[in-house]
């Protein structure tokens, strides 16, 4: 909250600092240490962070390949869209702006006719987090302005967007974005993810079938007992006990569990949970086997030592 006694410069500094923290949080490309130390006026190369595997930051661990993208043209379209959305003293939130840019089919957007605007769905190929980063940059650079409105009754805050003081792009709007981001063990991760998705889908079908049988016994619709959202929660979390099911399923209560004998659903999640454990064990064994084969096929000595050159280990240590 801004102090009423703060000068304009002090308020601007606080807002700039706030935006810097936000940009740091949503940046999934650049080295965290580089960003932090740059803030304090120090220089730190990302290569130094990557050098020490045990202490790498999350962004360096993810082996991201960054590329610079020119968002100037999209930025111009965003300003034109904001101008249209805020005509006649109307207000618009950042989330609504992003939804229009991403081509959302929200009822409010359709009803307002904003799906007919030229800029509707113009950012369909830009992931949402990068649209957020772009808007943050436009706010920090003064092309857009963000107003925070506090509702004292409910204690909630809303962020509204409008045009800023800058209207001409003197410099290109460049963002560093992730070109490719995969973990080192990406093949193993993909396999595990695929296995889990298959089991979750299978579990969900069995849960639906069983819940329909239970509801038929009571002469009611199955959605009266639990919604599909609750069933998806069960299929995703695969609880192994009554206590776990009560804790991880939002709509589940002790009364409902006992009244409708929903231990029948628990037996299904336990079954699929065991299947998942078994799949994980198999994949771990396969990965270990592949790793051993790789290590066995990798030379342990370098050809450097067999090129006929007399190598002096002591000389190598000299700096």
From TrEMBL:
It catalyses: Couples ATP hydrolysis with the unwinding of duplex DNA by translocating in the 3'-5' direction. Coiled coil: none annotated. It comes from Adineta ricciae (Rotifer). SUPFAM superfamilies: HRDC-like, Winged helix' DNA-binding domain. Gene3D superfamilies: HRDC domain, Winged helix-like DNA-binding domain superfamily/Winged helix DNA-binding domain. Residues 283-319 are annotated as: Disordered. Pfam families: HRDC, RecQ_Zn_bind, RQC. InterPro entries: HRDC-like_sf, HRDC_dom, HRDC_dom_sf, RecQ_Zn-bd, RQC_domain, WH-like_DNA-bd_sf, WH_DNA-bd_sf. One of its GO terms (biological process) is DNA replication. This is DNA 3'-5' helicase. It is an enzyme of class 5 (isomerase). Residues 70-183 form the RQC domain. It comes from the Eukaryota. Its EC number is 5.6.2.4. One of its GO terms (molecular function) is nucleotide binding. The lineage of its organism: Eukaryota, Metazoa, Spiralia, Gnathifera, Rotifera.
């Amino acid at each position: 909250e801004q102090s009423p006694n703060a000068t304009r410069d002090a308020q601007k500094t606080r807002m700039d600092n706030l935006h810097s923290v936000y940009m740091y949080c949503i940046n999934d490309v650049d080295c965290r240490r580089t960003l932090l130390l740059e803030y304090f006026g120090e220089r730190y190369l990302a290569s130094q962070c990557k050098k020490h595997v045990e202490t790498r930051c999350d962004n360096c661990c993810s082996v991201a390949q960054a590329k610079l993208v020119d968002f100037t043209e999209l930025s111009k379209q965003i300003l034109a869209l904001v101008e249209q959305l805020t005509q006649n003293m109307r207000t618009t939130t950042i989330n609504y702006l992003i939804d229009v840019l991403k081509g959302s089919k929200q009822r409010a957007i359709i009803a307002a006719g904003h799906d007919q605007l030229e800029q509707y769905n113009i950012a369909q190929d830009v992931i949402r987090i990068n649209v957020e980063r772009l808007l943050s940059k436009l706010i920090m650079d003064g092309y857009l302005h963000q107003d925070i409105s506090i509702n004292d009754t409910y204690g909630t805050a809303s962020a509204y967007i409008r045009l800023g003081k800058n209207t001409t792009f003197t410099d290109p709007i460049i963002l560093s974005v992730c070109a490719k981001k995969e973990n080192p063990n990406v093949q193993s991760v993909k396999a595990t993810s695929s296995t889990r998705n298959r089991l979750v889908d299978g579990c969900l079908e069995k849960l639906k079938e069983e819940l329909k049988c239970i509801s038929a016994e009571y002469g009611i619709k199955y959605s009266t007992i639990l919604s599909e959202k609750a069933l998806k929660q069960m299929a995703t979390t695969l609880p192994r006990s009554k206590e776990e099911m009560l804790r991880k399923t939002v709509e589940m209560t002790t009364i409902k569990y006992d009244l409708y004998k929903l231990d029948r659903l628990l037996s299904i999640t336990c079954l699929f949970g065991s299947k998942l454990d078994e799949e994980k064990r198999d994949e771990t064994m396969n990965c270990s086997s592949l790793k051993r084969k790789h290590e066995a096929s990798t030379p342990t000595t370098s050809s450097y030592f067999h090129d006929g050159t007399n190598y002096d280990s002591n000389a190598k240590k000299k700096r």
